[in-house]
Every structure is written in structure tokens, then in C-alpha cells.
């Protein structure tokens, strides 16, 4: 597929995700971490405008001078921006304005992509594609949050299935101790945080071939998992008490039955599906209760080919840290990954919301340990 | 005008206020005090549905069971409700849904109003009209906040003029000491907080015929009004420091010139217009700086016929307290006024946003002393 | 009594209040409103040093340059100061240092008071005496808070009795409507907030001769007073829910029996004693439950001679506002009262902690409506 | 040395640290992380009473039933406790009471230690010794915080020297890539978090033989280190802005010269001494500015024998995580380390406040990345 086609396809997919929305759904930001869908649509567009068109497309006219202030996410290099908690306070630019902004930038990009693109620029362009794909996942999880926390519980769409069933009976896979290679070594795109490829020494370990199910998690709840501090980190326990956590996000006890909100609306829990929307604290507590633990990201990467993975982001025991030889790029692009490498945990795998072609065995996702609006899940090791 | 016509006219006016809005403008709640316009439209409708139709219109079918939860404001008697800070997190019911809700209730109300209405019910109905008019004022001030705090500063409408000029040169009017009667004694509607009519003793005082202008307020700013604690209450001074207040709300120093945002957009300050969007703390500090004071609400009411008033709500020195013999109604309607009678200041007059026929000399408006998104102003006394 | 004797007697009384304390009790500040006893001892000393000695005693040498920073309470005119919430973080100056500071200033003051004192200075001096007496009341209530919130509940002293019994059966006293004079008009000291004496018009009212007892308050609790929003202001109800208030401060339900901590330690509630340590919100809710109300400060002052008052500060319905013609003094002394005249309620009477000779019928005490560590009580009116 | 002697020596050392204090210094808690010295003295005593005497010494009588509530730190197994932020609100038990508590428990312990001690109990006892030593370090850093944040800046003692000079010129030491063994394997005491000893693979790296000095750090400040976001983690940069950080803790710019508070009082910065009281965020930013990085804890442990270490705790790049095979003990003792293994960074080495015999190459200290009241320092690697 040529660059223009690839660009169009990725850009169109973001808009397709928003098709089932009402205009109002594009606007709200119920919590800081959940951005309004129109912000995602604008921000990904701003990325191409700011990093590709403005510095490289000679005759390009900026769509609106104010949009840099509105759609910059966290790039300090690029100047001031709407503070993150205020995104949901902005009724303008309207959804219509944002779609016009997209069309305007797309038209300029498609023209620009027919010119000769240097290798360096190509790299940046591919980063822009991957950036938009990351926001496609966020779009879907943010939409789920917006609708799933509305007292009317409107379904998003019947077409999206969240299911993630066991392929087979779960079994423990044994990996021998030894030196293994970790990190990306293919010839295609990877993020800077997947480099350098380097050696690690792993002790012998066992890891489950399958994810933990809703049924198993329900046993944890019924066994008092949320009321026994012994299973929890001190910070996790504080989090449980302060927020009165009693079940995964989107679970509701209705007339004595556990139900959960999915993109299709509210329904009874399916015991065989993989549990999702749990924090790292909960994943850790569940593993403690089982007398097991979470795998490290290195164990996960080494075992990955033997695992059934791909519909849930799997919390690992690893903190998000630079690999040996990690180097951040100069300028704004260097703010992409490195500056988040503290106080976050690595997740491996991919979720039902991850765009096609946007997952690989070396991919390192990361979130703070208390967050659970992503499609997170649990795999056990020991 | 008959009841049906009166009902229709008031209801239509709320919708007219919203005509210039984009759908997105109906949804956001940038601060707790500012409710989304669609919430106002729904809440005023809910008032008629809950207090008139459900208890009295035999065959009335509730539009949606969930709307009570969404559109109850603060009536504890009526059950649980969306917490106030969450109103801006709700993308649903959509703006369209809310207009359908209005049409549905209006149709039922118009039918119901053609039946025989008891005197007691008539009283409640008139309360509902006045309630909707109060929300019309809030609609406009909330819309101003939403647009005026957007970095793009979109104008609301060229048709709305905020101007409030001096009628004549300001002069001091002297009122003799003596016993005066305060409170409503007409035969039409008034709120419970305007009763009982009772006597007060006033010492001789002087009060300005006119409101303080932007030009006079600018002198206060230039003379260091916001940097000299001597003019302020201790709590006012804390508020200035904590919020780094340097001018009235909506004022911006652009290229060395003071501008302000009005419903028509951003433009230079008009020195002759009455200053507006100031807190009680600022009104008090300005008066201290002038060596004067604010009138009490009783002084205001006694002098009102000799004053030029009506385009700004005027902060008074009076705390919002019950009049002698004040009695709250039983049930939910009793929650209307009495439960707010602590820590608020009385404002008298009316503003450019007050609906026609919704002001009178005995009207008692009230807000917390730090709030300034209403069209508030200053009148001096001594 | 001559000035020197009066000075010595007042100063000694502050130290006598602290006699039963351990050194550690002088240091802590468990909540913002409660200052460490050593701070009170230092601050009252600083008042005499700063306002009397430094400007007037020619050869006076400041005890320590740093103490102005440590012991200034809220006088902006006098410069920077330790922020109020930090008073309990200061282990130095030590208790010993503070007593040395007192001795040093006392010695200088006693010498100074033997010189000729101008009338103006005399006025300031008398203010200093009254200021120290106000802090004597705070010393005792702050000590009670410090000991009464310690898990060991140490008694303060067997000598202090908190009792406040009914003199006689409570009866309702009727006061006729008419014009009355309010405010101080004696020839001795009064605070600026008791002036000017002025006329008010009161409607006919009835007021109880006695305060509400623990027994009556217990009936309110048993009747669900703390669980029925109807009795409360909206802000009061929020306060109840947020702080899970279920009884007056210092009350504890131990093995099914209501006990309370007094300066003598923990013991069973005495049903006949006047209830104390309640907020304005609770006083108002109790009155609502009774179908009555609190008196205004003007009603209280007019009825005072016929009331049994003097062991509890009585919440009134009045907001703390300036009297007609109120004028604050120039300079730091002008910061004494006026700048607090917003968002507070007036209390009338006197408490068991009020120093002798520090109460009068025109005295206006004031606190925020949620506070209850003072010896507050309830008198009903209608 | 026999057990009794060892016990007495360790216990006496805690009291020796407190010798220079005034009674008041034992009481205050200026920030949550800094406990009152009397709390440390009581808590370490409570540890021996609760875990050794009560379960094992048949005739032991508890000193006071209430002390468990007062002196439990974070052991959920052992029941309720004073919340951590309230420790500074307790004036009782008095300092005297706490010393009596110590004497009482010491006497019982010394008697008990002359009986036959099982191996299991011996292990617990040695943990108690190490626990008290950890609190000795905290005692000193907490005292420094209490005195160093007092506006009078009282010195602690002339006897304690904080100096930590370069042994020699700093040079880079190269360590070859390969598999290394990490973790404790001696026959004496170690904490559970130092186990299991296991293999890691390290890439070749260089590490400085010496710590970063005040002089080098001053260059970072002068070069705009605190004003350039590029050097910082996103969370570190937020921390700098929110807290207006401009230099290490205890540094003050006085008349244009950088001074710092040490245990000996305030004096000019010594450029040759190792910088201390910096957060992980600052250590990371400094390293970025130098174009280097911090070592991992594994790199540190492998290189340790060639490093000049021991007067500063050295921030590493490693997150505090369990070693392979980590197992927490059952019961309260199992709460010692494991439950803190999230969101903290490992520090290696030892500081001037670390008790003798309480440091070793495998020791893992840990703190949250923003904290800086410990004697922390920086070593560079690449």
C-alpha cells in the first residue's frame, strides 16, 4: 500500500470509530484521563499539521492560529496549551469545525505525500501513523467511559464485540532459565522505548497460557478479596478504601446479580470471558490471593509465542524504565516516551481496541497503577 | 393573558435564549456554578412534570423514568440526583432528547391548563413560571461563562446589549431616619423570602442615584486596589491572593489596554458603562477605597423609587436572612429559599439578563460573596 | 486598681490557665483553628511589645527580632508571619523561651506603666488587656481541644467546672414590638464593633429564659435530628454528611451510653446541663425541629436583662455586620474587627471560659457557622 | 557481643540521638513523612513489646493498653492506629511517659533475653534490632527537618558532621558485560527484600567512582537546570512547578550567596562536599543535563567494591520490585517490605545518618521519587 493510501486508511478509521456518536458525546470529559473524542480527532490532526506540514510543506497555511493552543497535548517544546483538565470545558471548536480541520489537513497531507519524502521525514510520518493508532485505542476506551458512566447507559454499537474467550484450557508453560534477547530487532517501525535490543537473564519460571476469567475473578470477590488487606500493596489498599472499590470498573450489582457495561450495553457477566478494566493493584491482589504473581515484561516477551494473547492489555510486574542504551530524539518528538518513565507499570499484549497492525511482541504499553479504563487483564506466573 | 398563553410565552423564551447556540454549547459545565444549558432546559421542564403533572394530571405518563435522577437540582424530598459537579459529564440525554422532553411536557401542560385549576395549584404554577424565569437569567449568564472562557472567545449574539449607562450625573440622595415598611405587600406573586412585610428602623443615610462605572473602577485598579489589603475583608484578601484576581471577570489586559468580553465578543472597556461581574468582596473593597460603603437591602428598598436601577444586580451589605415571620412551605417547595439563608449576601435590583416582569422593588436575589459570573454591580452609600 | 496591678493580674491569669499543662501540651495544633498554648502566650506578649513598647518606650530593646514573624497573628500591617496552619510545626521558641519573653516584656511594661500615659495610649492599653482576655478564653478552649481529642483523654484539672444548669424552669418571655436602642453607651471600654449605639425596630417576639439542655438535645438526636435534611440549611446538611456528624463535639457513644469529655475527663452526659459545643448549623436545626428559631442579636440584647445567661455563648440568627456608623481605626488596630465582617454569625452572652469582667450585654462574639470548639449553646425564640 | 549487650547498645543509641533535643522538639510533625521523635522512641519500643514480649514472655504485663493504638505504624494485622498525619497532634503520652515506657520494656526485654531463645525468635529479635536502626536514621533526618524548617534555624549539635568529601578525583570505572549474581548470600542478617540471590545480565557500563558535588550541582542550577523542562520527567517537571523548587532542600539564597542548613546550623555551601537532599527527579534531571544517567541498582551492586560510597543514599534508576523468588513472611512481619513494592525507587549505599553495622552492598533502601528529606545523593553512569 502506498503512503497516501496508508494515510487515508488510518485517518478514516478514526472517524469510523466516531460514527455511532451523537454530537454531545464528542464534547465531554468526565475525568481527567478521558479526553473528549473531538479533542482526539483534533489532536491527531494537529500532530500532522505541526510536525509534517508546517516545517516541510512550503505553501501550507495554518488552518487556525488558535488550534495549537487547543490541541497540543503535552509537548512543552511547542508552547502553551489548554490544561488537561479543561478539555471538557471547551464547546468550541465545534465538532463540525474539527471535521473541517481534518478535511483541510488531509487534503494538504495527501498533496504533500505525492512529493518526494526524505527518509527522515518518512520516519516521522510513520510515527504520526502510529500516534493516530494509539489515539484510536484511546478514542474507544474514552467513548466507553463517557457512555458507560452515563446514568442512561446508552450502548455504543452492536458491531463491536469485547469478547475474549479462552482458546483452550489454561495450562502452565515452563520457560528455562538463561540469557534471552529483549527488544525490537525487526526492520519496520517500533517506538523508541523498544530499543535497544539487549540481553537479560531470566530464572526458570512458569506462566499461564491463558488470561484470568470473569468467573475466576468473581471467586476472588466472593472470597473477600476486596476486604483483606493482606493481598494488597499498601498504596493499593489505600486506593480500595478511599474509592470504595468493590469490583472491576463497569461492574454493577443489580438485584443481586453481577452485570457489566460493555460497548453493547448492560448485561450479565459472562464467566468465561477474560476479566477486564482492572487496575494493576487489583491484578497484583488477585495474583497474591492465588499464591502466584504477575510475569515481568521480559518473561512475557520470552514466553509470548506460546501464549494466547491479544484481546486484553496485560499488567506486568515491571516498572516502565528505559532499556540499556535508550536515547530520546532531539526536539518535541523526544518528549514522546522517555519523560513518562517513572511511576508507571508496563502492560504487554494488545486489546480489543488496539488497531490492526498496531501490536507486536516487543510493544511496551504503560499506565499508572490505579488506572482501569483501558481494556486491561491478568495473566499469572510463578 | 390567559394561563396557557402565559405558559407558552415563558417556555418559548427559554428556547429563544438558546437559539444562537451550537449543540456543543449546550453540554459543558466549565465550573460547578455554571450548569449546561441543556440541563436548564431539562430541569425547568422537570419542575412542571414533577410538581404539576405527576400529582395532578390523572393520565399523564412520565416521559422517562431516568430523567428525575438527571434533572432534579437540589430537592432532597424528590430523591437522588446527579451530583452538581457532574452535570457537564453527561452527553445524554442529547439536546434533541431534551427538546423532545420539553415538547412532550408542554403538550401535556397545555392540555392540563385548559382544565379547572385550583387556587392552590395556581400558586404552584405561578411559582413554576417564576422558577423558569430565574433559570432564564442563569441560562444567559452560564452561556456567557461558557463562551467567554473559551480561548476562541466566540460572540453569543449581536442582538443582546449589555450596556447600562448613567441616566444622569450621579448624585447623593438623602433618606431621613425613621421607621419604614419592608417586604412585599402587593396582590400578585412574590417569593416566600419577601415576606412578612415588616417595619425596620433606618438611621439617616445617603445613597448614590447611579451605579459605579467602569471608568471609576479602573481608577480603583490603577490606584492599587487589588494590592492593598486595607480595603478588603480578610476572606476577600485571601480570595484575591489565592485566585490572583486583578480585575473584574471577563476583563483582559491586551497590549496594555483593558478589554472585556461581552455577549457581543471582545472589545475595549467602555468607561461610561456600569462595572459588572464583580464579587461582593470587590464591591466592598471598592466602597472602602472610596471612603463609602454599600447600602443595606432595607436602605435600598426604601430609596429604590429615587434610584436609577435595573441593569445590574447590586450587592448590598445585608446577609441573606429570613424576615420576621418567615415560614417555609411544607414538602419539596419548602426547599426553595429558606435552606440557603446562611453565608450569602443579598443583591437588589435586576440585570440585563433578568426577564421582563421578573423584577420588583422587594425582590431578594442572593449569592455567595466570591461569585461574579452574574451581572453584578456596585451602588455606594454612606 | 491601678494600671500596673491590672496589667499584672491579667497577665498572671493567662499563665495560671496553663499551670496544669505538660510542656508537650503547649506545642501542638491539631486543627487550624486551635493554636498551641505557647503561641497564645507569645502572641499576647507580642501585642504589648509591638503596639505599646516599641513605638512608645524610648529605650526598649526588642527581645528577639524573629519573634515578630512567629507571633503576629493576622496583622498585615505588621509584616509577614508564620502561616496559621504552621503554628503547630514550630518546636522553637521553646516554652521556656516564651515564658522568658513574657517576663522580659512584663518587666518593661511595668516600668513603662509608671510613666505618664496619654489618653490615646491608655485606650490602646485597655484594648491590649481585652485582647489578652479574649486569648484566655481561646487558651482554655484550645487546651480542651488538644486534650479532648487525644486518644488517652487526659483530664485538664478538677478545679474547672463546665456546669451550666437551669436557674429555674424555662419560660417564654414576651417582648413588645417597638423601637429599641442597641449598642454600647457606657463610659468604659467596648470593642469598636459594639458602636454606634443606634435604633432598631423589633416585631413582638418571645424568647426562652433558659438555654437548651443536654436532655432536650438528646431527644433531638433520638428523633433522627441528624438524619433528616428538612431541619437543616443546605450547607449545614452538607457539613453533616461530609463530616459524619452525629452528636455535639466531645460526645461519644460508649457501650450504648452517651458520654462527653469535659475539662474533668470523660463521664456520662448530665441531662440537666446546657448543651454545648454545637455549631450554628446544629443550633438552627435543633430550633427547626422544635418549630422555633434562634433570636437575632438585637432581640437578645433587648431581652437580656430578663434572661438567665452567662455560661454558654449563644448562637444568634444574626450575621456579623457593621453597626450604622461603624468606623475602623487607622493602622494595624483597625484590623481588629471590621475585616471579619462577612460569613460569620454573632454569638451573644458569655461562657464558662470567659474571664471575669469580660462580658456585657452589648458584647458581640462571632464565629463561622460550622465551628464548635467554643462553649456554644442554644436559646430558642419565636 | 552477647544479645543483651547488643540490645542495650542499640536501644541506648536511639536515646543518644535525642540528647540534644528540647522537650518540644520531640512533639511536632511538620509534614506527613516526618514523625515526631517521641513517636520513633515509642514505636521501636512497641515493636519489641508487641512482637517479642507479649507472645513469648509469659508473665509480661502490657505497659498501657492504649499504646498499641498510638505507636503502631502501619501493621494492619495488629489493629487500628492513629492515622499517620495525626502523630504531631498528640501531646500525650509525654516525652517522660515515653522514656518510662522504654525503661519498662527494656527491663522486661533484658530479663527475657537471659532465657533460652529459639532460632525463630532470634531471627525476629535481630529484625527488631535492624528495625530500630532504621528508625535511628529516620530520627536524625526527622530532627533535621524539624529544626531546619524552623524560622529560628536552631543547630542540632556541633558533634554531628554531615561532610562527605571526594576521596580522590572522580574517575569512570568500566564494568564488562556479562552475567552477575545479585542479592545477599552471607550468613548474617539481611532483609527479605535482598533475597533471593539471583543472576542478572548486565551490558557493559561505566560508573563514576565518586558522588556529584555541591559545586557541580551549582553549575546545573546556574545553567538553568530548574527552568528547562527538557531535563525532567513529566511528573518531575510538574513537581518543580507546583512546589516552585529552585535548589536542594535546606538551600537558601541569602544576600546573593547560596547557604545551606546542616545539623550544625546555617553556613555557606561547601562546593567540594557531595550534594544532598535532592529528589530522584532532581537526580535524574542532573544526569540528563550531564548527558549521563543514574546506575541501576544491579550495576551499583556489581561495581560497589570499586566505588567510594557510604555517606549519601544514592538514587538508582531501578524501581523497587521483588527479586525472583521473593516471599513475604506470614503475619504482621510479612508487612515489612513487600507491600511497598510499587511507585518507589531504590537507593543504594548508606548515609551519614546510617547507624554503624547497618549497611552492606546488597542493602535496598527505597523512597518515593519526590522525597528529599533523607541524605540522598547522585552518582552518574553511562
TrEMBL record, chains A, B, C, D:
All copies of domain Sulfatase-modifying factor enzyme-like, residue ranges: 170-319
Biological or metabolic pathway of the protein: Amino-acid biosynthesis; ergothioneine biosynthesis
SUPFAM superfamilies: C-type lectin-like, DinB/YfiT-like putative metalloenzymes
Highest taxon in the source lineage: Bacteria
Pfam families, A to Z: DinB_2 (PF12867), FGE-sulfatase (PF03781)
InterPro entries attached to this UniProt entry: CTDL_fold (IPR016187), DinB-like (IPR024775), DinB/YfiT-like (IPR034660), EgtB (IPR017806), Sulfatase_Mod_Factor_Kinase (IPR051043), SUMF_dom (IPR005532), SUMF_sf (IPR042095)
Protein name (Swiss-Prot/TrEMBL): Ergothioneine biosynthesis protein EgtB
Organism: Pedobacter frigidisoli
Source lineage: Bacteria, Pseudomonadati, Bacteroidota, Sphingobacteriia, Sphingobacteriales
